[in-house]
Design a protein that fits this description.
Blueprint lengths: L1 H56 L3 H54 L3 E6 L4 E4 L1 H7 L3 H4 L4 H4 L1 E4 L8 H9 L9 E4 L5 E12 L5 E10 L1 H38 L5 H32 L2 H4 L3 E5 H11 L1 H7 L2 E3 L9 E5 H17 L6 E9 L2 E8 L20 H6 L6 H11 L3 E7 L3 E9 L6
Parallel strand pairs: 8-10
Antiparallel strand pairs: 1-2, 1-6, 3-4, 4-5, 5-6, 7-9, 10-11, 11-13, 12-13
Length: 462
């Protein structure tokens, strides 16, 4: 965390500045008090010896009295000028010291407010003195909602594993006077109640006598890091299950053919080759799904869209064509597309929308019974169109309906009859979000499924 390293370096630098400022202040005060010492010495000498000197120099009584009066006025005037000079120097020294302190304070505040990580500063009683914009964004609280409050009244940090509040860092900062980092993954509870994964460091700040007078917390939103970690774990899990089976199958059939190639009949050899091809195709589909997930989650799908005007009917005809081999293999009939209106237009990326409808139609065919029928119907609803793809296949268990768009999820009954990555409907969900659409599913186990895809309609080219 670059900001935390910078913060430590800046803290050392500010300590150096404080030492320099303290030395400078002492020099200024020394320059103020030197005239005072001179004035004191001269005053003592003058008081002790001026009368004797005047007695020797002036014999006349009246002249002596006049000289004493002049001496007194000279002393008053000199004292006044000296006092004025001393006060002026003292005020200037204090002004310079105050101005330098304000500049250092403003410099540090600008640095803290402009940093990309969330920063909050507390006093020795752990009450918040300042928060920056990044901290407001991460926590959801405005600065005026936090100022003056004990930090954990609003900024509550809890353990990701146990949910218990994490209070060890402020204890270390204020008790031991050293910087501290969390010992376990933590989360910040936002104003809206959502929990944001965070990481960070707490550091004390001290006066010139090394006494802790407050603390600085630097917080970083690590949602993306935790997401990447989950993705890595998901991929490892997927690799250990989904990739292992087809790779093991390919290896086994290749070894079998190598060992018994002289004994195998042509039909048996072709059967093994077809099985190797099936396993290889499963790997290709799986890698394709993973690449699609990577694209839609990295926002490249949104950035690289080629938006055009597209006929809905054309999209559906091409989606049906893409699953033609599967429909022929299962002898499934797809009805309703030919009778669809040619007038309904969509606006979006043709490749992405084709991927949406291909996934939905493919699922309907895949989980239909052999010789079954898949129906496609269209209904307009205001400025939106709803495409319904229905089948009379195996359906989805009711308890698992809410999970169908999650990554790597496959219904129990679907896993028994076919292979798959469990990424298809997740990709559909994300691509529809990019196009301002949505989808929902109605299903009953062993009675079929209806998938409703909803998208905005383009009217008159708009």
């Amino acid at each position: 965390m670059k900001c935390i390293t910078d913060l430590r370096a800046r803290g050392a630098k500010n300590s150096m500045f404080s030492a320099i400022n303290l030395a400078e202040s002492k020099n200024q005060m020394r320059r103020v008090y030197t005239p005072v010492l001179v004035y004191f010495v001269v005053s003592v000498v003058w008081i002790l010896f001026s009368d004797n000197l005047l007695t020797v120099l002036i014999a006349d009584q009246e002249e002596y009295v006049r000289a004493q009066t002049i001496k007194g006025w000279l002393f008053v005037v000199a004292s006044s000028f000296l006092l004025y000079a001393m006060i002026k120097k003292l005020v200037m020294a204090l002004l310079i010291q105050t101005d330098e302190s304000n500049r250092q304070k403003q410099k540090l505040e600008v640095i803290l407010r402009s940093t990309g990580e969330g920063v909050f500063v507390t006093d020795k009683n752990r009450r918040i003195l300042m928060v920056n914009k990044a901290m407001e964004r991460i926590s959801g609280f405005a600065e005026d909602e936090l100022l003056g409050r004990v930090y954990n009244e609003k900024l509550r940090f809890v353990s990701e594993k146990t949910g218990k509040e994490m209070l060890e860092i402020p204890r270390i900062i204020h008790g031991k006077g050293v910087a501290a980092v969390p010992e376990e993954p933590g989360m910040l509870i936002r104003k809206d109640g959502k929990k944001v994964p965070v990481d960070g460091i707490g550091s004390p700040y001290k006066d010139e006598y090394s006494r802790v007078i407050g603390g600085i917390g630097v917080i970083r939103d690590v949602s993306a890091d935790r997401w990447r970690e989950r993705m890595k774990n998901d991929f490892v899990s997927l690799a250990s299950h989904q990739l292992k089976s087809p790779l093991t199958g390919i290896k086994w059939f290749v070894e079998l053919m190598a060992e018994k190639c002289q004994e195998l009949e042509r039909e048996q050899m072709l059967e093994y080759i077809h099985k190797i091809g099936d396993s290889n195709q499963h790997l290709i589909d799986l890698v394709g799904d993973l690449l699609s997930v990577s694209r839609v989650e990295s926002e490249k799908a949104r950035e690289k869209r080629r938006v055009t005007n597209i006929k809905l009917k054309t999209l559906l005809i091409e989606a049906v064509e893409e699953v033609k081999m599967l429909t022929e293999e299962k002898k499934v009939t797809i009805e309703g597309v030919d009778a669809m209106s040619e007038k309904i237009m969509l606006k979006g990326d043709k490749t992405q929308l084709l991927q949406v409808f291909s996934n939905v139609v493919n699922n309907a065919v895949k989980f239909s019974h052999d010789g079954g029928v898949v129906g496609v119907s269209v209904k307009t609803k205001g400025k939106r169109v709803v495409v319904c793809v229905s089948d009379k296949g195996i359906g989805i268990p009711r308890r698992q309906l809410k999970k169908v768009s999650e990554k790597f999820f496959r219904a129990d009954n679907a896993s028994k009859i076919s292979t798959g990555s469990g990424l298809g409907l997740y990709i559909v969900t994300r691509l529809l979000e990019i196009h301002g659409g949505s989808f929902r599913i109605e299903s009953e186990e062993n009675r079929g499924t209806k998938v409703y895809v909803e998208l905005p309609i383009m009217y008159n080219g708009r």
